[in-house]
Design brief:
The complex is a heterodimer. By secondary structure, chain A is an all-alpha fold. Chain A is built from 4 helices and no strands. By secondary structure, chain B is mainly α. Classes of the chains: A mainly alpha, B mainly alpha.
Amino acid sequence: MIGKSKYLRWFVGLLVISAALFLISVYPVPSLLKWQSPFLSRCFFILMICFALCLFRLMRGPTPADRAVAVDTMGILIVGFCAILSIPTGRDWYIDIAIAWALQSFIGALALAKYLEGRGFDE
Amino acid sequence: MSEIIGYVFILIGLLFDIFGCIGLIRLPDVYNRLQATTKCVTLGTCSILLGTIILKGLSATAIKAFLCILFLILTSPAAAHALARGAHASGVKLWQKSICDKYEDDKK
């Protein structure tokens, strides 16, 4: 019984992810923000799928450490979002946001690690 | 030509990102998940930034993106190490098929 449900879960997950990738690569993209390039807006949707997977782990993580890992991963993904946004819009300050977000995500991860270790913030 | 090379780098980065996030879903343990996401997502985001550099040419944006790559490569392993240490200190068990736990042996 357990083995069957394990294979079923594998199959459903593979089907969902491949169907999402196929739909993104085939369907015409709605014009977000009047972008010139449909390729980059498809890249944007693929990053949104990654973000949804991280949100799943953030909801269902059995321990607090799993949630901390998911938050750290989301912080790194947002840097990728900002880098992709800076190409078609031609605005430089998206990369500034990326640098600031990387700094903030690093400090947040260190604070979460200290919280997991059970120490105060001033030690 | 440089546009094609930049788009190829961005595609490689997206592939690494999505593999890392599938690893975050599928792997059985906090430490395994941390390993998958830290390697794959950091390399993927660095590859996206490298594609940005190639697409933009030599400009202020490219220099800022290079600084961002440098910063991510410097800080992401440190953050992952701190998170793994914190998870071990908070008492998260290893997967039952794990072979050895040297950190636990050292603490005794």
